[in-house]
Amino acid sequence: MIIGVPKEIKNNENRVGVTPAGVVELVRNGHTVYVQSTAGEGSGFTDDMYEGAGATILPTIEDVYSIAEMIIKVKEPIESEYSLIKEDQLLFTYFHFASYEPLTHAMIKQKAVCLAYETVERADRSLPLLVPMSEVAGRMSIQEGAKYLEKPLKGRGILLGGVPGVRPAKVMILGGGVVGTNAAKMAAGMGADVTILDTNLARLRYLDDVMPANVNTFMSNEYNIRELLSTHDLIIGAVLIPGAKAPHLITRDMLKDMRPGTVVVDVAVDQGGCIETCKPTTHENPTYIIDDVVHYCVANMPGAVPYTSTLALTNATLPYAIQLANKGWKQACADSNELKLGLNVVQGKVVYKGVAEAFNLDYTPVESVL
Ligand SMILES: NC(=O)c1ccc[n+]([C@@H]2O[C@H](COP(=O)([O-])OP(=O)(O)OC[C@H]3O[C@@H](n4cnc5c(N)ncnc54)[C@H](O)[C@@H]3O)[C@@H](O)[C@H]2O)c1
């Protein structure tokens, strides 16, 4: 199959859909890979590295879209890319269709085959192509939180790990899923005093078993959250209720219970945030202050560490990309329920129920397009 890797053109997106290591694997499987010039630059991969791996470099994005049968990228196509997409072309990338109606209509119009990373789903209902970004964001939340706790950045001026004779910072993590667990590992490793709250008792039992001694677990409810707020220095929002907005576990009136310089990193900002006063920020302007509480609410945290994020993402996507290239999308999706659930829009038809419902569009069962 002919595979194309365009350069991401969405603002501040430095990741790339395939690494040189991925090119080696695709070529070994008999495929031809075209990479747009400088596509890997933001992640530290030069054109020479791609050529050395067996890819051919093409100068423009138009060249890549016009030659490829399958496009592998990271973010959803943006307006200027819509017209480059060809009928029957397979696009394997994040789409997040339900959050942007014009994209859905554009993909219907172009009659492309859109296989969305975010809806590829395992039998245990986990989302293997979202997990890597949650791992990155969870680990990063502690790094960012520790930084904003510094006094010059308006924090409480407390060192996460303390020093001999001085207590470490207290870190409270709302939600013990992928983000929360990765945050807890980092905070615990730095010597902080960590508390994870979750509503899922089985999950708390598991975390209690595997976490080090400086991590405690607590049932998540309003009473417990209010009790902990006044004594904790760094709060991480890591809650997810699939398919719903994040619940506001910390309401505006609770901010007054927190000490000046407390830092909140609301990783769940992309689902509305679990702190009522959360509004999305960017890497250029990551924080704002309300009632002396520092809010960090960057919606695309992994974007700040493109080297790690690209490798983490492509480690997860490549095995699926190889299946799609080796078998063609129809056979690969017929053979793998995980991949089949990734199909959202196929040759003008919406085949993912959630997307059809979001915009009141006709729904076509995915089986009928295979
Ligand atoms: N900002 C970013 O850059 C970024 C990056 C990656 C992920 N995220 C977001 O982070 C959030 C968490 O993702 P995840 O992969 O960890 O999800 P996950 O499903 O692995 O974990 C969510 C956890 O929240 C728990 N939960 C649900 N309701 C709760 C409540 N009332 N109190 C406490 N816990 C509760 C669940 O039991 C679960 O353990 C999601 O909104 C995700 O989209 C953001």
UniProtKB/TrEMBL annotation:
PANTHER family: ALANINE DEHYDROGENASE (PTHR42795:SF1). InterPro entries: Ala_DH, Ala_DH/PNT_CS2, AlaDH/PNT_CS1, AlaDH/PNT_N, AlaDH/PNT_NAD(H)-bd, NAD(P)-bd_dom_sf. It is an enzyme of class 1 (oxidoreductase). Coiled coil: none annotated. This is Alanine dehydrogenase. It catalyses: L-alanine + NAD(+) + H2O = pyruvate + NH4(+) + NADH + H(+). It holds the Pfam family AlaDh_PNT_N. The keyword NAD applies. Residues 4-137 form the Alanine dehydrogenase/pyridine nucleotide transhydrogenase N-terminal domain. Belongs to the AlaDH/PNT family. GO terms for molecular function: alanine dehydrogenase activity. Keywords: NAD, Oxidoreductase.
